[in-house]
Amino acid sequence: MADEKKKVVAAKAAKGPKLADPIKASIDPATQELIVRAHELGVETVFDRAENLKPCSIGDQGICCKNCSMGPCRLPLPKGGIEGEDQRRGLCGATANTIAARNFIRMIAGGAAAHSDHGRSVAEVFLSVARKETEAYKIKDPQKLLAVAEALGVATTVEVDGETKARDMDEIALETAETALNEWGKAEGELLYMKRAPKPLYEKWKKHGVLPRNIDREVVEIMHRTHIGVDQDYRNLMKQGTRAALADGWGGSMLATDLQDIMFGTPSPVQAEANLGVMKEDHVNIILHGHEPILSEMIAAVAQSREMVDYAKSKGAKGIQLAGICCTANELLQRHGIPTAATFLQQELAIITGACDAMIVDIQCIMQNLANVAKCFHTKLITTHPIAKMEQNNVLHIEFDEHYALEDAKKIVKIAIDNFENRKAEVMIPRHKSAQVAGFGVESVEYHLGGSFRGSYYTLNDNIINGRIRGLAGVVGCNNARTRHNEGHIAVVKELIKNDVLVLTTGCSAIACAMEGLLTPEAAAVHAGPGLAEVCETVGIPPVLHLGSCVDNSRILLAATEVVKAGGLGNDISDVPVAGSAPEWMSEKAISIGHYFVASGVYTVFGVKLPVEGAPVFKKYIFEEFEKMFGGMWDLEPDPIKHAHKMIAHIDKKRKALGIDKARERVLLDMADRRALEM
How far is CA 625 from CA 247, 521, 578, 629, in A? Predict the structure, then answer.
């Protein structure tokens, strides 16, 4: 019998690992073509690994604790469910609810740390700019500087001889930089940006004791509370999770977005292309991947210089083609119109084209397997951040220093150009690419709806009230190899706009929408409902508005706040017909984002799965009880159409509560009608 088992095992091993089915792996034709090419060349990708490495079902449910060496303690749900008191305990006696809550808020801590450390890096560079320590970066948007200074309590005027005069901009910049950087570790008080929220929301946070004290402290305290034998009440654990998430959304992420706008320019709508087809066979292709624009801004400036273009031509190339992956792609796109090459799951495929001369990475969402794929091609893989290196010996590390930014950028771009002559594989760039319009934000939405002299969110509110726009939806987040690439994002977004919901998008979700052709004004006529299509046609906007990278989810929070300020749709974000969604989430950042939206009053639906199913009491707490405290709550729906309709049902519930659930036609009044109204 033992011999028979050995034969079966040997037979299975001989077959080798499974290969991904390109059609089942992705809805995107460029991705499908390159998966086939990878198989032909014997190059393994994330899609293949997803076929062979299955997730732990107990970890999936959030009920595996490995916070000490007595574990891991795994507490599976009984097959028949739980009747009476839940008797499941870890070795220390921790309940399933405690374990699930600890795991959940540790994900919040990881996500908040990632976004907020990004923000800290930006704040440090901004301080260098304010101190005149670097010539590479400038203040490009002084008006945004004044707005941020005001939000941080920095005076923008000064009294001189009884007269109020504008304060020196250099002084404002330096004090703003110092005040902003202090938000990460100040000894007392609360985060200054919390008061940017509608007052009723701020009062809810204050009442429930979740106002963040500083950004770093909230992350550290989560790690302390989740150590063995500290916090053992899922409600108290989630209280700290809420503080940390808010420190991310209304703190680190929001500061990152604002300071980037000041230094690199506040985005305004630009047109570009998206998908791997943006790469060019006869050009030096430089792919920028990661999240911090500190690096990519300098690479963009250098690569587009006459000096470097001429150098590329001297090596036989016709020019230099820059393109981005993940949130670096969104940063480059919204400020420069540089095309978007790929989402998270496509990063290996950019190298498999054979045309990627250099892939330059910084932090977050960088697959270590890029190094293994690069070995099969000529691509130079270059890491640039001190906290993000790779162990493989074929990876170059060139540490980027903002004080020598231009010199570092020139060195990196020159390496890419020199590598153009070393291409050793046949180039295969898919032809698939789509047009997109991106670069929307709080300011540009206001302009598009009201123009230069009467910019206001009143027009948006008016169209929500009269029913042309049913409501708003934030659809954001990653790709996940456990689902079909891009399918969840596209199905959810198409169903929402078909039902007259205006979609705001960021991150890889925005890239997916661009690849599908949903980010052009013309898409409204094809995919949007009649009311939304009419609004889009009138003001010339797409039915899906690209608001930037993952840290730029803070733009959605501020846009929702502007909707409240404009009036007619309640006094708090939780009153507005709005819902949030992450159809294909995978990173800890997504959990932090989801929770700061929930704590800001937004009903938020995740796709794929959530690590809470194994703790029903804890799940009920965040799925139902949170709404009573903050007006927002979590939900889960893997099916994208049902997912969208849960959001629509919530939007309709909010419309009914506001008394705007019936569409209202505009009526032109003559003078007799006006007199009757006045009487």
Answer: 21, 40, 19, 7
Residues 368, 355 contacting (CB under 8 angstroms): no
**Between residues 228 and 676, the one the model is more confident about:** 228
| Digit-coded pLDDT (tens) for 186-209 | 999 999 999 999 999 999 999 999
- Gyration radius of the chain over CA positions: 26
**SS3 letters for 137-182?**
CCCCCHHHHHHHHHHCCCCCEEEECCEEEECCHHHHHHHHHHHHHH
286-300 exposure pattern, b = at least 16 Cβ within 10 A, e = fewer: bbbbbbbbbbbbbbb
Q: At what angle do helices 405-418 and 306-314 cross, to 10 degrees?
A: 20
Q: pLDDT at position 677, please?
A: 45
What is the mean predicted confidence (pLDDT) over 237-242?
98
For 321, the enclosing helix (H) or strand (E) is: strand 320-325
Strand partners, 395: 381
What are the tokens at 360?
């330059």
Residues of 60-97 as b/e, b for ≥16 C-beta within 10 angstroms?
A: bbbbbbebeeebebbbebeeeeeeeebebebeeebbbb
Q: Mind listing the domains of the chain with CATH numbers?
A: 96-261 (1.20.1270.30), 276-422 (3.40.50.2030), 441-658 (3.40.50.2030)
Contact 268, 336 (CB under 8 A): no
Q: What letter does residue 473 receive in the DSSP assignment?
A: E
Which range (133-142, 144-153, 156-165, 361-370) has the least confidence?
156-165
* pLDDT reported for residue 83: 72
Q: Does the pLDDT at position 554 exceed 90?
A: yes
Distance of CA 497 to the CA centre of its chain: 20
> What sign does the dihedral 398-402-403-405 (CA atoms) show?
positive
SS3 203: helix
Is pTM beyond 0.90 here?
yes
pLDDT at 86: 86
Strands 434-438, 270-274: parallel, antiparallel or unpaired by DSSP? antiparallel
What pLDDT score does 663 carry? 58
Q: Which residues, including other chains, have CB under 8 Å from residue 295's CB and lie 6 or more apart?
A: 288, 328, 360, 362, 384, 385, 400, 409
Q: Crossing angle, helix 234-247 and helix 96-130, to 10 degrees?
A: 20
Average pLDDT value for residue range 602-611: 97
Residue 401's CB: how many other CB atoms inside 10 A?
Answer: 12
Q: What share of the chain is helix, strand, coil (3-state, %, to 5)?
A: 50, 10, 35
Nearest to 480 by CA among 382, 343, 596: 343
Reported as a single tens digit per residue, the pLDDT across 411-433 is: 999 999 999 999 988 999 999 99
* The token pair that represents 97 in the structure block: 């609810």
pLDDT higher than 80, residue 341: yes
The string of pLDDT tens digits covering residues 394-409 is: 999 999 998 899 999 9
Contacts of 272 (CB under 8 A, 6+ apart): 333, 337, 338, 339, 340, 435, 436, 438
Environment class of 351 (CB within 10 Å of its CB; exposed 0-12, middle 13-18, buried 19+): buried
Rounded to the nearest integer, the mean pLDDT of the chain is 93
40 token code pair = 């032909």
Q: Taking a C-beta distance cutoff of 8 angstroms, is the pair 391, 412 a contact?
A: no
Report how far residue 56's alpha carbon sits from residue 138's, in angstroms, rounded to the nearest whole number.
49
Measured between alpha carbons, how far is residue 648 from residues 107, 475, 641, 653 in Å?
A: 28, 13, 11, 9
**pLDDT tens across 387-397, in order?**
999 999 999 99
Is the model's pLDDT at 443 over the cut of 50? yes
For every residue of 249-298, DSSP letters joined together read IIIIHHHHHHHHHHHH-----EEEEESGGG--TTSEEEEEESS-HHHHHH
